[in-house]
Amino acid sequence: MAYTPLEKGNLAKNRCLSEMGIKYGKTAAQIALNWLIWKENVVAIPKATNKDHIKENFGAMGWRLSEEEYEAALRCI
Ligand SMILES: NC(=O)c1ccc[n+]([C@@H]2O[C@H](COP(=O)([O-])OP(=O)(O)OC[C@H]3O[C@@H](n4cnc5c(N)ncnc54)[C@H](OP(=O)(O)O)[C@@H]3O)[C@@H](O)[C@H]2O)c1
After folding, report:
1. Which domain holds residue 53?
2. Are 59 and 26 in contact (CB under 8 A)?
3. Pocket mutation for ligand 1, best pick of 36, 53, 56 (most atoms within 8 Å of C-beta)
4. I need a labelling partner for 17 at 20 to 30 A (CA). Which of 28, 49, 70, 73 fits?
């Protein structure tokens, strides 16, 4: 299980992840969460009190970064 999956919200502000998400129409938070669940048996439970954040975080599921993007995302942080 991921420990502070959005790095307490900081990853949602990551410009590099945000740019990576343009191709998919996804936000930095969605890229960060998709990266975590990319690997089998990894679970991410982000905390969100804001309704828009909760809805946005659902958008981290149902699609998948390519293997190259998975590696590239590591260089964003
Ligand atoms: N068992 C353990 O050892 C352990 C350790 C650490 C954490 N946890 C638990 O794991 C959960 C998450 O931990 P955490 O709060 O430290 O870190 P987190 O999930 O990485 O980040 C939470 C923060 O991210 C913001 N956020 C969520 N979705 C966002 C989005 N789409 N865009 C922008 N900001 C977004 C939230 O803001 P809003 O609230 O404004 O939406 C909140 O400030 C908590 O329930 C915590 O209790 C457990």
Report:
1. 7-74
2. yes
3. 53
4. 49
